[in-house]
């Protein structure tokens, strides 16, 4: 009985670790959008710095 | 691992590496004076006995490729001089030190932003091309009078650089 329960638990764990079936398009877009925002603000500050040299 | 996860993890790691390299380079170049850069020292208790800081202000440069040396003393809670005029177009080397606690020295609207530390002389070379007025503020909290600690830097037409 407990062996069977362990088996089910292992199976569930494997499914949790397996990300291939997840739809991560939205997450990907948000990660890229935040990355782009950071890059943009960095270059904004850098351009300001260069102009004041 | 998901394909997208691989992409953002590698992009994140790469940007971390890039920014650390930029940080490392800018720490020792571009006018920054970290503690290990051979920054000049001065005894904070005898700052006012030093010829340069006994009467701080704008002085014609005797060496180097800048036109003027500008000496500033930042103390609680004032700057000496309280106002200074610089001829437009001149290159000025600013020297700042403190006889008491840590102060800031920021010339608003320019890249001049230094810490005035007791015992160290912070320097920055800057060419002032545009005539105008800049506020100098203390941006390191130094005590009860911190907010009133200001000076004015005026860039004016005339002077050696324009003769």
UniProtKB/TrEMBL annotation, chain A:
Assigned keywords, A-Z: Membrane, Transmembrane, Transmembrane helix
> Which residue ranges traverse the bilayer?
28-49
* Top-level lineage group: Bacteria
Record's protein name: Cytochrome c oxidase subunit 2A
Q: Which organism is it from?
A: Jeotgalicoccus nanhaiensis
TrEMBL record, chain B:
* CDD domains, per the entry: ba3_CcO_II_C
Write one Pfam family the protein is assigned to. Answer: COX2
Q: Is Metal-binding given among the entry's keywords?
A: yes
- Provide the protein's localization: Cell envelope
Q: Where is the Cytochrome oxidase subunit II copper A binding domain?
A: 55-163
Top-level taxon in the UniProt lineage? Bacteria
Q: What does this gene product do?
A: Subunits I and II form the functional core of the enzyme complex. Electrons originating in cytochrome c are transferred via heme a and Cu(A) to the binuclear center formed by heme a3 and Cu(B).
Name used for this protein in its record: Cytochrome aa3 subunit 2
**Origin organism lineage:** Bacteria, Bacillati, Bacillota, Bacilli, Bacillales
